Amino acid sequence: MNAIKTAAITAGSLFAIAHIGLLGYVIKDNSIPEFPSIQFPQGDYSSFSVEATKDGYKVEYRANDPTILESNRSLQLHKDRRGFFGPTTENRSEYRHDQFTMDGTRNLGGAVLDGEGKSAKEVECIVADAGARSQGAMAGTAISAGVVVPAVASIPYVGWLVSGWALLLGQKAGSELGSQVGEVFNDC
Length: 188
Hints:
The protein is α+β, with helices and mostly antiparallel strands and 188 residues long. It has helices spanning 2-27, 120-152, 159-186, and strands spanning 47-53, 56-62, 69-74, 78-81, 88-91, 95-100.
């Protein structure tokens, strides 16, 4: 019986120590929220804010803040009279509100141009045309591989060469057709 008592006391002691350790881990003070240290790239116009709560954290980072630079100018109107019936001169002034981009050019309104002088719509049309040409080329190659190539591959001596030409012709025709279809669907 002594061995059973010793084993029971040892098991009970280990069970009690494990529970005390677990309670210490659970009761630990978690009042300070911990969030990772993030090094944001900083520049003249960058800003960031971090909001940490017990449920998690939220990071807001702006790499180019303010995104619009503004300039306001106001001029006055002056009237000068010379004598009682003399001529009157007016000096008019204006109010001007300008917006500038980061490189210092003035925003004139209208389409925004990229570095090569293309508007956003033109760039969108170029990208859409490239995608349409690619899809059309793949479709033209697949159609010519399934229909034309088996018919011309059996030509003696030059069938392999004509098959390659047929694939290239199908690819070119599909690319042109894809471009035309892309223009219609993308309003370009």
